[in-house]
Amino acid sequence: MLITSTTARLLALALALTAATAAQAGSALRVVRDPVTGELRGPTAAEAAAFAKAEAQLRASSRAKAPAKSGPTEIRYADGTVETKLTEDDMMFSVVSEDAEGKLNFDCLPAEQARKFVQAKAPASNTKAKASHAH
Question: Residues of the signal sequence (predicted)?
Answer without folding.
Answer: 1-25
